[in-house]
């Protein structure tokens, strides 16, 4: 019997490959010889299976002279569009009772936002062809073309299952869904055990901490406790030897809250670029500390006594990300060190990987991070009031009566960025800072320029999945899965190819040629954040103490000091 789920069933992770995260052909012109004079070429989960659960997709839209993309809505997605060629008149209509029409004419390099669910359109206003790239904040945004839906529906409208973009892991649909660990169906999560078969049953046992880091994690996830399936939380115990550390790491899908049962711990996390501020504190028995989702964190046993605390699931321990598989030239540019230093760190990384796998100890993890998008909007739009001094999760809203088309648009994405820097790349963002209308809509856009052989260094987005298409040149791209596999999934992209980087995972791009390269990328957050690994680990303010990095990377103090001096 076929299993019906919200989304699509998952492929066996061991069988996943780069082609699952890849699509080719977005540089090809669509056939516009139809009644409306436009063609949409989609890259959704149907075309790119790796988009499943990641909450983002992309389309190319071609317009004949005076062609239109007729009035339509996307029931599950906001849309951000940039014009590659030509001029477009665009607009959307707010909901009842205002039904206000907000419209603007865009030219090459301009960007415009269409809020989720609102009726919108585009029209080519010139006698030449036009092209646009748009990203949408759902793997399967859906489209309701108004004329077709109202006047062209069949007598029997089939049942459609529509689910909103989730702000956290999928919500439970019953009291519990105890994981059926024997089920062979691959899902985003686990299948449910028969509720009639559910029963209830030591996290008190000290773990073996005789390893180079001097710590060990005993996890309690849905693997160990099937009843955790769907409640979006788990627990771990962390044991620390005297002065032991839990090396710098991130949780791509979870916020962490930690409490000390015994001993003292120095804890800290580093904020994202460009500040890279180190937030640190010494905790004692009974103290509690929170590590925000996706941010680089670390814990250190403080003193000569043993300590017990907590954390888990899909940790990215940076010293174990098999940096050897990223290639020396990429690491050289990212960390600004010579090959001898790279080879030295890689050799120690291999030894550490062979001897132990770090996990970590007693806390609750809230999976706010399997985000398909930012929290869903509660009104048509919430244009950011940039003059408001109130601090919110997001930005305060401008008075809707004062909103105009300029709040949803920005110009200049056709202009090449300055790549004369050590990495040889430049990112030009279009987030809620540049386009106030993006506030609350859960999507943003960037242009990335690359000098010959330039890189966008290894980094993560703590709050967003990224989908990227190559406009010019060739790019080598890749991401690394979380512990313990730390598997590098990589591919060389050509013009028109598309690739997706899952939320929270370390990823990179490198120009794979002697000419310049250009890419457009969309991210499933109005403010995705960026954590450049080298800058964050070695350039935080103040520095992460060198003795922590010495233990984490298994190198001597001189190497750490040398790398820190570069940042």
From TrEMBL:
Positions contributing to Mn(2+) binding: 459, 461, 466, 507
An example Gene Ontology CC term for this record: apoplast
Cellular localization per UniProt: Secreted, Extracellular space, Apoplast
GO MF term set: manganese ion binding
InterPro entries membership: Cupin_1, Germin, Germin_Mn-BS, RmlC-like_jellyroll, RmlC_Cupin_sf
Ranges for domain Cupin type-1: 24-174, 201-343, 411-561
Superkingdom of origin: Eukaryota
Residues engaged in binding oxalate: 456, 461, 466
Gene3D superfamilies: Jelly Rolls
Keywords for this protein: Apoplast, Disulfide bond, Glycoprotein, Manganese, Metal-binding, Secreted
S-S bonds: 382-397
Similarity comment: Belongs to the germin family.
Protein function: May play a role in plant defense. Probably has no oxalate oxidase activity even if the active site is conserved.
PANTHER family: GERMIN-LIKE PROTEIN SUBFAMILY 3 MEMBER 3
Name used for this protein in its record: Germin-like protein subfamily 1 member 7
Native source organism of the sequence: Quercus suber (Cork oak)
